[in-house]
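Note to self: keep these together.
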Amino acid sequence: MSQQPATAPAPDRQPLDETAATSVRAYAAEQRARVDVLASVLEDIAANGYPAAESGVLWAEARDAHLARLADEQPRVA
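Structure:
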């Protein structure tokens, strides 16, 4: 995937107004940051191996915390 935005509009696309385009760019940056975090975790595992089970978080606790974060987020329109 390219880090560069498309420079010319595609012929069969409906252009966005500036506010919508800014919002989409912000969302893309947020998603790119999340992927960067995942990549750094995977690189750490590759370099150092899996972390000890005792240092982890139980699946149910991680799930509940994630669901609570999702409930606090603003709704988004696809």
